[in-house]
Write a structure and sequence with these properties.
P-loop_NTPase, elongated, two-stranded parallel sheet, ABC transporter domain-containing protein, 6 helices, two-stranded antiparallel sheet, alpha+beta
């Protein structure tokens, strides 16, 4: 017996379509790639129609196109999202507020423009960085090379 209502099925279908998985609805999760599984996890969360999302590396296992798709989708939900991101360029582009941790301590908190500085990136991550405008009020962050004297 199906415990889901027609509305439930519609919500699930919308979540699958929003994450680009509509065509995969009948496939078993074990048959999906790592990136597709990552999007299934997000679709599952979206189907619950949350007022807030907590995401741990939502772009992990995704190619760049799907990383951008997912982050734009999440941004456009209009809800509070707390996400752990390791891509500084993605955090700078999509986050309203960033928190940078170093060894479990907060070393930066604020807008990406205020927090993601050349000095902070050097001190926390041990890499050189170039930072510039990327349009639409966002930053472009290019990192490298490794700094041998850091850390």
């Amino acid at each position: 017996m199906d415990r889901l209502t027609a509305t439930d099925h519609d919500v699930v279908r919308q979540a699958l379509d929003a994450t680009g998985l509509g065509a995969f609805a009948e496939r078993r999760v074990a048959e999906l790639s790592g990136g597709e599984r990552q999007r299934v996890l997000l679709a599952r969360a979206l189907a619950q129609q949350p007022r807030m999302l907590v995401l741990d590396e939502p772009t992990n296992h995704l190619d760049i196109r799907h990383q951008l798709d997912i982050l734009e989708l999440v941004r456009d939900l209009g809800i509070t999202v707390v996400a752990a991101l390791h891509g500084l360029d993605l955090a700078a582009r999509y986050a309203d507020t960033v928190v940078v941790l170093d060894a479990g301590s907060v070393v930066g908190h604020g807008t990406p423009a205020d927090v993601l500085t050349v000095d902070l990136i050097r001190d926390v991550f041990g890499v050189a960085a170039e930072i510039g405008p990327a349009g639409k009020g966002t930053l472009r962050i290019t990192t490298g090379p490794l700094l041998t004297h850091a850390r």
